[in-house]
Amino acid sequence: MRSFVKHTALVLQSLVLAVAFAAQAATSDKVDINTADAATIDRVLVNIGPSKAEAIVAHRTANGPYKSLEQLAQVKGIGLKTVEKNRDRIDLGAGGGAAKKPAAAASATP
Fold this sequence. Notes:
The protein contains five helices and two strands, in the order αβαααβα. By secondary structure, it is mainly alpha-helical. Helix 2 crosses helix 3.
């Protein structure tokens, strides 16, 4: 009986580790919002389906590359909450501007 309990505990620990590593791998995906196609945007971003992904690409085509993540909120159906949920998954790539610094840091003088 004791060996069964030890074996079960070992299996459960292994399962927990496997789930933790899988979750970490899933969140490490990033998408360059200025070059990605709609299918990639749909796959990587949370709460973005095929129609919103197409809208992101159409907005980029019509208005040029995104210079900040907040510009995604200009796309119909995408709000700032969705942008915040995806902040770690979005890359602006070479097409976007430099990452914006917080206002306090930008206005500080050395």
